[in-house]
Design brief:
This protein is an alpha+beta fold. The protein has helices spanning 15-21, 39-52, 80-86, 129-132, 138-145, 155-161, 175-180, 185-197, 204-226, 228-233, 236-250, 312-330, 339-355, 363-369, 373-376, 458-468; strands spanning 57-61, 67-69, 72-73, 94-99, 105-111, 149-151, 167-169, 253-254, 259-262, 283-288, 290-291, 300-305, 409-412, 415-417, 433-435, 438-443, 446-449. It is an enzyme of class 3 (hydrolase).
Length: 470
Amino acid sequence: MAKGRKNGLYSGISEELSALMRTGWADTERHDLRLAEQAPYAARRRAALSARFPGERLVVPSGSLKVRSNDSSYPFRPYTGYVHMTGDQARDGALVLEPRADGGHDAYCYQLPRDGRDDDEFWTGPTAELWMGRRRSLAESELVLGLPCRDVRTAADDLAAASGAPTRIVRGIAPSLEAAVTTEEERDDELEEALSDLRLVKDDWEIGELRKAVDSTVRGFTDVIGELSGAIASSERWIEGTFFRRARLEGNSVGYGSICAAGEHATIMHWEDNDGPVRPGELLLLDAGVETHTLYTADVTRTLPISGTFTPLQRKVYDAVYEAQEAGMAAVKPGAAYRDFHEASQRSLAARLVEWGFIEGPADRAYELGLQRRFTMAGTGHMLGLDVHDCAQARNEEYVDGVLEPGMVLTVEPGLYFQPDDLTVPEEWRGIGVRIEDDLVVTEDGHQNLSAGLPRSSDEVEAWMARFAG
């Protein structure tokens, strides 16, 4: 029986109550389920992973609930590599690739089965079905995932007893499974690298999901424009809540903590407190993305004049960032080095900063020394997919030192940030932060801007706000 609360109201369960609870339940097994749309793509991804590790057992866990406070848990988010290889989002699962003699693998998925009705587990604990909601049965999961499924409660013993092949496991996800196998950290790290490598080029289904994420994000930004008066009357939290509503209505949630940064908060790269005032005459930097039901996320940023029009100085900074983004986007094409778009944007910003007298030139020297980074802070983009910073464990030679290929999806997001306490710039510049970010897919002949539905140039932004701002 699940452990009860220390201060629970009931001291126990009578035999009569237990008997009552175990009877009178309908058979709810679903026989109408079909193979998930993503399943054939996930099968091809597993085949690619298999080819990298012939003769080795691979274990990719999904993860488990994490306590937020007492008996309250954080919303569950499965390990990205597990989702990519299975299409599944269940907690307490694990994908196992068992090696065959021919060098390939047999894949199966451990799952937490449904609670039976022959004991009290299904209703006596906060993770039981009557508390958390119905799970799929193993048979149902097999229909949806196209994978043989096993009871995860035997997984640790099964793995401990397995022999005949070396094992790799993704570490830090499922301690009980880690404890059951003997592995080497360096070899396990190579498995995690491979899972990231294999997400660098998206398949057609994934690109379709990212389009959905971006389209919902465009609508979320328009929602925010329409409710700016509510934000002015309250705080940045109105903006956060407005975008979150769209994310929950059309997707799973937001793909990351929304950055709703007004005024000098726009100079803070990852401002997520979102509790400051929204004042006319200042700028609002909104960095947000909807995550689809399949967990693919958009990542878009626009910097907006709260009053509807830029001041001359705000426009000057904004146009410099726009110019840098244009240079960066022009460099996104197949065969180009991944670093090219970053270099193009950063060189453009370095030239402007030299022109304005904020760093010492010439511009090429300033760029080579990285002097512009005082005001640009970060790189100019990253891969995008199931994670907002996707493929984070991929090998450098495949990612930052690699070459762009059709199917890669990335952000281009230059910015300029003049800190409110920066005495190296004139006072009127201090507290201005501008970032413009779009999501691009590399195509056979260049790129497509998935977020082109949102205005980018200063004139377009002002016209957009004049149309929708409330």
